UniProtKB/TrEMBL annotation:
This is Twitching motility protein PilT. It comes from Rhizobium esperanzae. Residues 4-117 form the PIN domain. SUPFAM superfamilies: PIN domain-like. Signal peptide: none annotated.
Length: 128
């Protein structure tokens, strides 16, 4: 299985409470057959919110990418096609980061592991 993790799940991993908060996803990520991916959009969103003082990622911003790679997650960049591709079907959310994740998942044939109530019913979202 190939999973693109949403920002909330990434934050739980960074804070080391993913097992408690999202046990099904933590179990999947512990399976050697699962490959986990993180969009740079999630890191971007985290950095913006941390600098605004609305979020504490649990570790210094400059350590996030290395920490995620260290545990075996693959970081995915953002390319032009990802920002101009509409999520099909159209999403209810107006959050630009949430709108980018399904487009990014589609481009790499990934399932979107999300707990966001506006994304969980999207066809690309992982059903647990």
């Amino acid at each position: 299985m190939r999973l693109l993790l949403d920002t909330r799940i990434v934050l739980a991993i960074l804070r080391k409470d993913a097992g408690a908060r999202f046990p099904e996803i933590a179990s999947l990520l512990g399976d050697s057959k699962t490959v986990g991916f993180v969009s740079v959009a999630s890191l971007w969103e985290t950095a913006i919110r941390a600098r605004l003082g609305t979020l504490d990622p649990g570790i210094p911003l400059e350590d996030i990418a290395g920490s995620l790679e260290e545990i075996g997650l693959i970081l995915l960049g953002i390319e032009i096609q990802h920002v101009i591709t509409a999520a099909d079907p159209e999403l209810e959310t107006r959050d630009p980061f949430d709108r980018l994740l399904p487009a990014r998942a589609r481009s790499k044939a990934l399932q979107l592991a999300t707990v966001d109530r506006l994304l969980v019913d999207h066809p690309l979202a992982l059903r647990l």
